[in-house]
Amino acid sequence: MKYLIFLIAFMGVLPLGYILTLNRKYMRCAFLAVLLPVMAFNQVSINFFSHENYRGTSRGMEVSLVYLIALAMLIGMWILYRKKPLLPDTGSKIYLVYFLLCIPSLINADNALFSWFEMWKMIMMYIVFLCTYYYLYYTRDFNTVMIGFGIVAAVTFLTVVFQHVKGIHQANGLFPHQNSMGMYMCLIAPVFFAYYFNRNKGWKRFLFAGFFLAASAACMRTYSRGAMVGLPFGCAITALLSLRYQFHMRKIQILLPIFLVCFFGALLLLPNIIKRFEKCPERIADDTPISCGFRLEYDEGQTLCRGRFE
After folding, report:
1. pLDDT in tens, 79-106
2. pTM above 0.85, yes or no
């Protein structure tokens, strides 16, 4: 049934995405359809050759609605516009080298199929990158991209608040795992900060300041150690580069209240952050009892474990 649904979506989304690229107004709507489904990524994706019990980052040859719309828009832009290199910038060439270096894993991996799942995801991610690159290159419509990311950040933040009320310690928001949300917010929050930091006036400054606070709060609420370290680092780089290329005393005045808010927010979260770094184990040893009396037992050569209460 899932393959039949995919076939119907494939035959409908590709021509529809191409038609939408013929008009710039509709192209914005199509690109929002690339950004927003991340809020329900698993629900709009299927896995070919799926191994649902595999606990890696990919459980099959994942094909998402995001990838289909991005591919349709990319084909449409390649047909409509003349300039269409497959490797349009230096970053894409570096990504190609990285991809080629990963190919030997198909030979060396214990399970070549699982390795291919990751390689497939890299290809799909590059399609989304190319779609975004050419959309921005031909339309210069950065507002649609920023608003799309902002909607995801705002809705995720509200979901995190709801999960907090329900007593969930490490919130994952709309993402499959808290580390996934932590990485997403860690990357997008400095972009919102850059928009607010470098705009002199306009109501959008305050809109994106709100998006920045929402993304930062959601990121910290994951208690992901990498995200908690990466977010301040990314914002610091953004601020330093902004001051380096366009220094203004107004920016210094902006940094002070932001620093104070972050400082008091860190103090509020500090007990849980310390607990997260000090008491989170690197791994749970085989057949090791957990404090609640639940014992994990691993089968030899299996990816799954079974548990029992003692």
Report:
1. 777 667 888 889 899 999 999 998 888 8
2. no
Give the pair of three-digit tokens for residue 61. 């040859």
Q: At 169, which helix (H) or strand (E)?
A: none
In 3D, which of 296, 257, 126, 153 has the Cα closest to residue 212? 153
pLDDT tens by residue, 212-233: 989 988 888 887 877 888 888 8
Q: According to DSSP H, which parts of 140-248 are helical?
A: 142-165, 178-198, 203-221, 225-245
Pairing outcome for strands 45-48 and 61-64: antiparallel
Which parts of the chain are beta strand (E)? 45-48, 61-64, 294-298, 305-309
Amino acid at 182: G
Residue 140 reports pLDDT greater than 80: yes
Give the integer Cα–Cα distance in Å for 66 and 41: 8
Report residue 63 as tokens: 């094909």
